[in-house]
């Protein structure tokens, strides 16, 4: 299965990443793809290598919301290498579900 | 596609409305219908014209949870004109998904 | 229909239980099964009889996340009788959706 994870709050970034790792350990081979979408105040995660690298190393898609980058005054050049940008995090979460991905809001 | 949006926390009302607007801008014509359900402490949004009018102007369904109105001591006559009431916000969110709507929890 | 409910935050336990009761009252016979998954800081609910018993009395499945129990230093023997344990709360939420359950994040 494929899972799209939404992370919205800055205060929950670390807990969310921990939960994503638990998800991977729990579901193992059942899990085909995982995508983590950071938006709203949680967008700051996408410029923090200590947070993002472990996710990328697990072959997780890491997505940054452009609207949130602009709101928070973060330059796209500051993103950790490997992070992809979408126009809106909410649009991405909705589109992925339309494609059949399972939704998890952390 | 059709999207049902759940807004639960008072502190997140403004951010949630901003995200709904971003969703509309991002998905454009792909989006057939959007419904925003305010419940729990976020129910207060439904008596605030400055918050609700821009949503109604975008042809978004705005829904108030009756249980939350009662909990917060808000009279139905105080609702912004155009807001619809359901017995429970959570019931609405579940029913919409049953009907095939995509879920977004802000 | 079948609904899987995710409760993540300790501060929201009481409100979440209230919403689950509202869901049951609202959907009535339409609702075949409800499962409430407590994880992250909300795991503490699973050792509190005053919170869990009313749920069990309504034939709701109450689930505790083992990862969260370990993180919070809660012994499995402290769980309210009738609570079931899964390896990870997020894995449970994803699996249930895969099985066709509707997702509600409180």
Molecular structure report:
The structure is a homotrimer of 106-residue chains. The first copy, chain A, has a single domain (2-105), classed as Hypothetical Protein Ychn, Chain: A, CATH 3.40.1260. The model of chain A has no long low-confidence stretch (mean pLDDT 98). Helices cover 38% and strands 23% of the residues of chain A. The longest helix of chain A is centred in the N-terminal third of the chain and has 15 residues, at 13-27. In chain A, strands 4-3-2-1-5 form a five-stranded parallel β-sheet, sandwiched between helices. Chain A starts with a strand and ends with a strand. Chain A is α/β, with parallel strands linked by helices. Chains in contact: A-B, A-C, B-C. The A-B interface holds A 6, 8, 39-40, 67, 87-91, 93-95, 97-98, 103, 105 and B 1, 3, 15, 19-20, 22-23, 25-27, 102-106.
Topology (SSEs and partners):
The structure is a homotrimer of 106-residue chains.
Chain A: E1 2-7, H1 13-27, E2 33-38, H2 49-57, E3 61-65, H3 66-71, E4 84-86, H4 89-98, E5 102-105
Parallel strand pairs in A: 1-2, 1-5, 2-3, 3-4
Question: What is the end-to-end distance of chain A?
Answer: 18 Å
- The coarse overall form of chain A would be globular
Biggest sheet: strand arrangement of chain A: 4-3-2-1-5
Supply the CATH superfamily name of chain A. DsrEFH-like
Biggest interface: A-B, 17 and 15 residues
Low-confidence stretches of chain A: none
The beta-strand count of chain A equals: 5
Number of domains of chain A: 1
- Fraction of residues in H or I helices of chain A: 25-40%
How many helical elements of chain A? Answer: 4
Give, in order, the helices and strands of chain A: EHEHEHEHE
Beta-strand residue percentage of chain A: 15-25%
User: In the CATH scheme, what's the topology name of chain A?
Assistant: Hypothetical Protein Ychn, Chain: A
Multimeric status of the protein? homotrimer
**CA-based gyration radius of chain A:** 13 Å
Protein name (chains A, B, C): Sulfur reductase DrsE
Pfam families (chains A, B, C): DsrE
Organism (chains A, B, C): Stygiolobus azoricus
